[in-house]
Design brief:
It is globular and about 50 Å long. Strands 3-2-1-4-5 form a five-stranded parallel beta sheet, sandwiched between helices. The chain has a single domain, classed as HUPs (Rossmann fold, 3-Layer(aba) Sandwich). The chain is built from six helices and five strands; from the N terminus they run βαβαβαβαβαα. The longest helix is centred in the middle third of the chain and has 17 residues. The chain has 165 residues and is α/β, with parallel strands linked by helices.
């Protein structure tokens, strides 16, 4: 039987419990899930690329996955569909929180389908508990002294605290 490989790409600046929830759900659908941390130098990230990869690796290591899925973390700095082809992925997972996410993702999916029709995009809706959580909100709330401990792991919270200094 052929190994089913999926990719969950993102900037993960920082990774949230909402991301982790999507990872758990995606892991039920493939044999190998690659969490792909985008370099994206055009984004004004709080954490540099190496820090984001380390945070994702730490959070993924601590996840309780019920399936036999092998999960790995990689970085990438190329066109997503080309990266997916290089990895032998059959699908790309995208998390949707709200209707506003859908418009952007719908357009990107159409372009990706044109560029690589053999790679499917799978949308996973965020659980109610995580629909309002975004990395941008986490950074802003934390910067202004708010408590974000319900939305990130202790490891990520420590990293956020380190950025305050």
């Amino acid at each position: 039987m052929t190994e089913r490989i999926g990719i969950y790409p993102g900037t993960f600046d920082p990774i949230t419990k909402g991301h982790s929830h999507i990872i758990k759900r995606a892991s039920k659908l493939v044999d190998r899930l690659i969490i792909s941390v985008a370099e994206n130098p055009h984004k004004n990230s709080m954490f540099d690329h190496k820090e984001r990869v380390s945070l994702v690796e730490a959070d993924v290591k601590d996840l309780k996955i019920s399936s036999q899925c092998k999960i790995e973390v990689q970085s990438f700095d190329m066109l997503l569909v080309d990266y997916a082809k290089d990895q032998g992925a059959a699908c790309v997972f995208r998390g949707l929180r709200a209707v506003s996410d859908f418009d952007y993702e719908f357009q990107m999916t159409g372009m990706n389908l044109h560029l690589a029709p053999e790679i499917e995009t799978v949308f996973l809706m965020s659980a109610d508990k995580w629909q309002f959580v975004s990395s941008s909100f986490i950074k802003e709330i934390h910067k202004l002294g708010g408590d974000v401990s319900d939305f990130v792991t202790a490891n990520t919270l420590k990293a956020l605290d380190g950025k305050k200094e």
